[in-house]
Amino acid sequence: MKTSYRPFGSMMPLLLGFLLPFMAACGSASAKADNNSDNNNIDSIMTETANTPDTTSVKVKMTTSLGDVVILLYGDTPRHRDNFVKLVNEGFYNGTLFHRVINQFMIQTGDPDSKNAPAGKRLGSGGPGYTIEAEIEYPRHYHKRGALAAARQGDQVNPERRSSGSQFYIVTGRKLIPAQLQAMKEQLHNQQLQSTFNGLAAAHLDEIRSLQAKGDTAALRVLQEKLIAETEATVAAHPLTLTPEMEQEYVNVGGTPHLDGTYTVFGEVLEGMDVIDKIEKVETDSADRPVEDVKIISMEVLK
Asked: What local confidence, expressed as pLDDT, does residue 4 receive?
């Protein structure tokens, strides 16, 4: 069974605990990822683009059943930009539904399985058959209101945070009060600690398994303390934080800062945010799918 591509509304709690259960979970997740047909590398598909990089931005008009939206694709996330343009030119998105809509959070689309999907069908696992290497340009691009970002599978099965080849979401979010903003800062810090520790532990997987096989818990504890120290030093040297400009944006305009630094933001809405707001407010079922279909009628690259 495929895992749905989705930006999660909550974050896994900070875990700097015993390596034995952590690495067991990591091994299980890796096996699941290897069996996912969407984990093919896009590099072989887009060789020509990779050889002739383009740093320019692109505008795309998205016509939906509730109105038109103009999107800007950033030039400094070229893999995502070029893949999006490729799919638009192929008509890939025509007829796809907004299959996941959450008020004060985001709206998501791009699952080809959603085309003509019967009412009540669970959606969110489809794609073009490949994933895209992450282009997380944080803090330059962040989850402000109107941001366009790539959906992806969770860290447990996707530690490299590769993006879905086609599914994307547009942030609606909400305005944060100062106390919420402070909580988000702490959450972002904890999230960075967790992610950094996970990466270091994965790099020592063979050593950890060897110590586990020997039953050498003392050595495991020593290694754990070493990785914790490396994690804290790395995060202290390169902290993920909110700039004053970002704080003002989140307080005065809104967004979803708890997703910052973990998903590829590769564009934003230039026109038609009122249409995004209409989609955000539609009635949804228990799976967050609109009760009445909201679809992309067509897309076109603007010259």
From this structure: 55
